[in-house]
Amino acid sequence: MTVSLIDIATYLPEKRLPAAWFTQFSGDDDLRDNPMFRPPDFRHHAAADESNVDMIERAVAVLVQRHGPQVLDEVDVLLTHSQLPDLPILGAGGEVAHRLGINPEWIIDVHNGGCAAFVLMLKLARQLLDGGAGRTALIAVAQNAGGTIFEQEQVRAKAQASVPGDGAAVGLVTRSDTAPVLDIECRYYGENATDMTLATDPPRRWWAAGPGEGYVGFNEGKIIKVLARGNRQVPQVVRAVCDRIGVKPADLDMLVTNQPNRLLLRNWNEALGIDPDHHRDTFHDCGNLFAVGIPVNFDAAVRDGQVTPGDIVMMAGFAHAGDFAGAAAVRWGGRPT
After folding, report:
1. Residue 23 — very low, low, confident or very high, per pLDDT cuts 50/70/90?
2. Could you tell me where the DSSP H helices lie in 101-158?
3. Do the domains 182-208+215-332 and 3-178 match in fold?
4. How many Cα atoms within 13 Å fall on the side-chain side of residue 55?
């Protein structure tokens, strides 16, 4: 018996901001016209009092609607990833388990993986279930930096502020043949890890008190490197998986990726020879969802009928400034009717 990704459920906050909301605060940021930060039409932002755990709980509620409350009783492994933890040091796993009323044998907060964390967590879930940790895993990702970091008074005038969106997603993974995980490729590029930085004006440590609001440290040189890494890494991991499962990239039924910007989405299509109709994204409505992008795009493709039972779906993405990339292929099994 193999390991299957049975279902994905998602949640997007009610607060929906148009691009014009940010243009009213436009400053003289030198990166304003950089393609890395061309704004989406809309994005969803978490409310001021909406935590990562709140959003995960709301995504789980959708899963329970489809599968019944007993689905949570079967969870042996809980994996969580918060793009911006609600509290420093503390991950979301313990509170999520408490809110859901479950007591799994394994609760693991997966901090690394970034925008490709869903792929990394799927690999970890498969490894744990194959190793005898149980029969069912719940993997949960959440992102609320849009409504917390990028709406701050100083930060919202920066070019980068108009791109991030918020949301949450959960995946149900079981030992079964229903929707088999065909293969997974994860690659680490530790030499790039220090290129992801937090900046303030005036400069200070992220944990130190001070007047400057924190934001992601970008400049033209760093952007060029990040784009080059993303252009290269995502096609590489997709091709590695395709080679092992015996499918050409152009013949994939659906590709779902993280969505940093329109430029990378287009470049990945061209590099892999994939028709844009077979690469689902929600960038125009959600912006850059970071780790939540892959499952939200998967869910959207299923809901719209772009993915049907038997289709091979490739999930792929890269993280941070290019220190991690991953791809996973699943033969979709359909949802309960």
Report:
1. confident
2. 117-130, 145-148
3. yes
4. 35
- For the segment 255-313, what is each residue's pLDDT rounded down to a tens digit? 999 999 999 999 999 999 999 999 999 999 999 999 999 999 999 999 999 999 999 99
Which of 153, 201, 163 is closest to 25 using CA atoms? 153
**Which element (helix H / strand E) includes 175?**
strand 167-175
Phi, psi of 186 (to 5 degrees): -125, 135
Phi/psi of residue 18, nearest 5 degrees: -80, 165
Q: What is the dihedral of CA 124, 336, 44, 52, to 10 degrees?
A: -40
| Token code pair at residue 285 | 């409505």
Only one residue has tokens 């930085």, namely 197
How many residues are given for the chain?
Answer: 337
Total-model pTM: 0.97
Pick the CATH number of 182-208+215-332 from 1.20.1250.20, 3.30.450.20, 3.40.50.300, 3.40.47.10: 3.40.47.10
The pLDDT of residue 27? 76
Stretch 55-73: mean pLDDT:
97
Domain residue limits, the chain = 3-178, 182-208+215-332
The gap between the terminal CA atoms of the chain, to the nearest Å, is 24
Answer whether CATH 3.30.572.10 is correct for domain 3-178.
Answer: no
Q: Are 143 and 83 spatial neighbours (Cβ–Cβ below 8 Å)?
A: yes
Q: Which helix H or strand E contains 158, and what residues bound it?
A: none
154-189 tens-digit pLDDT: 999 999 999 999 999 999 999 999 999 999 999 999
The tokens 């040091």 sit on which residue?
Answer: 89
For the stretch 211-227, pLDDT in tens is 999 999 998 999 999 99
- Chain segment 30-52, per-residue pLDDT in tens: 888 888 999 999 999 999 999 99
DSSP codes of every residue in 235-288: HHHHHHHHHHHT--GGG-SEEEE--S-HHHHHHHHHHHT--GGGEE--HHHH-B
Question: Phi and psi (nearest 5°) for 107?
Answer: -130, 115
